[in-house]
TrEMBL record:
InterPro entries: MeTrfase_RsmB-F_NOP2_cat, MeTrfase_RsmB-F_NOP2_dom, RCMT, SAM-dependent_MTases_sf. This is SAM-dependent MTase RsmB/NOP-type domain-containing protein. The active site is at 238 (nucleophile). It comes from Tepidimonas fonticaldi. SUPFAM superfamilies: S-adenosyl-L-methionine-dependent methyltransferases. PANTHER family: NOL1_NOP2_SUN FAMILY PROTEIN _ ANTITERMINATION NUSB DOMAIN-CONTAINING PROTEIN, NOP2 YEAST -RELATED NOL1/NOP2/FMU SUN DOMAIN-CONTAINING. GO terms for biological process: RNA methylation. It comes from the Bacteria. It holds the Pfam family Methyltr_RsmB-F. CDD domains: AdoMet_MTases. One of its GO terms (molecular function) is RNA methyltransferase activity. S-adenosyl-L-methionine binds at residues 115-121, 139, 166, 184. Coiled coil: none annotated. Belongs to the class I-like SAM-binding methyltransferase superfamily. RsmB/NOP family.
């Protein structure tokens, strides 16, 4: 099996404590368990979905209702199952769901999803809002925008308005508008690396990490501007590189004093480390320790999450 790119392995060396390293390394060499959620917007009777899945026997994920996991070998059967194709269930990593659990969207609120396609998190936000209130979903890449639209339709989302737009413009256009903002930022996609398929890192390089960080900074400023006083912002990436995670947040926190990190609501016991408060000899904002770095394991994908509150 080919090794991971050396520059990425250096990041793992710096980040992952030695006792966790064998588990993290193993996650790059085997297919992962498949996690899914039952979608209440299409399937209010979860028990009926589980019955329809037989002979597949999903195991509940402790701490959250309606979330289950199956062995990696069942992935194809689940992906092509009629319950998946009709939107009764949705295959979604648990760390990706955690971004929405941390956002805590409520029925009746105004919520912004600033980087939305293909729409897994948008659909979970809509389900948490019981389709009540207003959900704005932004995606600038045309093909992905239409995929988002089709997915939300299939998943029974009715309270979303979709915008084919650069997210960096939104804060200027509608300042102080939203109760909650999710920025699941475009990133260098390090969470998708697998040694089973070296093309998974074909588009990755340290330069790509730097370019992603520059875009993420612009989007984060826009997200912060679009947030109402007192509102909640979740910043997430599926990248492990601190340049795309804590460093982007640190630059924002140095520049303005109306936002601060707060603890993440965290219903599931996920393998995660606290956010960094220093990187490559540079000190970072001390409250970034409240962020969480979900580790890549046999059932979780790498994910970085931080929750910010805006002064009321
Ligand atoms: C990590 S993905 C989002 C995944 C999505 N939240 C989900 O859970 O299905 C990031 C998305 O940001 C989009 N994107 C890229 N540049 C953007 C920009 N300037 N403004 C808003 N979104 C952007 C990408 O096309 C991509 O669809």
């Amino acid at each position: 099996m080919p090794p991971l790119p050396p520059a990425f392995s250096d990041v793992l060396d710096a980040l992952i404590p030695s006792d966790l390293r064998p588990r993290v390394d193993a996650s790059y060499t085997a297919p992962k368990a498949v996690v899914f959620r039952i979608n209440p917007l299409r399937a209010p009777d979860a028990a009926a979905v589980l019955t329809a899945l037989a002979p597949l026997r999903p195991e509940p994920v402790a701490g959250v209702e309606g979330v289950f996991r199956l062995p990696a070998d069942d992935r194809d059967a689940l992906t092509h199952h009629p319950m998946a194709t009709d939107g009764s269930l949705y295959i979604q990593g648990v760390a990706s769901m955690a971004a929405v659990w941390a956002l805590q969207p409520q029925p009746g609120e105004e919520v912004l999803d600033l980087a939305a396609a293909p729409g897994g998190k948008t659909a979970l936000i809509a389900a948490s809002m019981a389709n009540q209130g207003r959900l704005a979903a932004v995606e600038p890449v045309r093909a992905r925008f239409f995929r988002l639209k089709a997915n939300l339709q299939r998943l029974g989302v009715r309270n979303a308005q979709l915008y084919l737009k650069d997210g960096a413009q939104v804060g200027r256009l509608v300042p102080g508008r939203f109760d909650r903002v999710l920025l699941d930022a475009p990133c260098s996609s390090e969470a998708q690396f697998t040694r089973l398929d070296p093309t998974s890192w074909a588009h990755w390089s340290p330069k790509k990490v730097r370019a992603s960080a520059a875009l993420q900074s612009r989007l984060l400023r826009s997200a912060a501007d679009a947030l109402k006083p007192g509102g909640v912002l979740i910043y997430g990436t599926c990248s492990l590189s601190p340049e795309e995670d804590e460093c982007v947040l640190d630059a924002l926190l140095r520049e303005r004093d109306d936002l601060w990190p707060e603890p993440l609501p965290w219903p599931v016991d996920l393998p995660a480390l606290p956010g960094l408060t220093a990187w490559r000899q540079q000190p970072l904002h001390p409250d970034l320790t409240l962020a969480r770095r979900v580790l890549p394991t046999e059932w979780t994908d790498a994910f970085f999450l931080c929750r910010l509150r805006k002064r009321g």
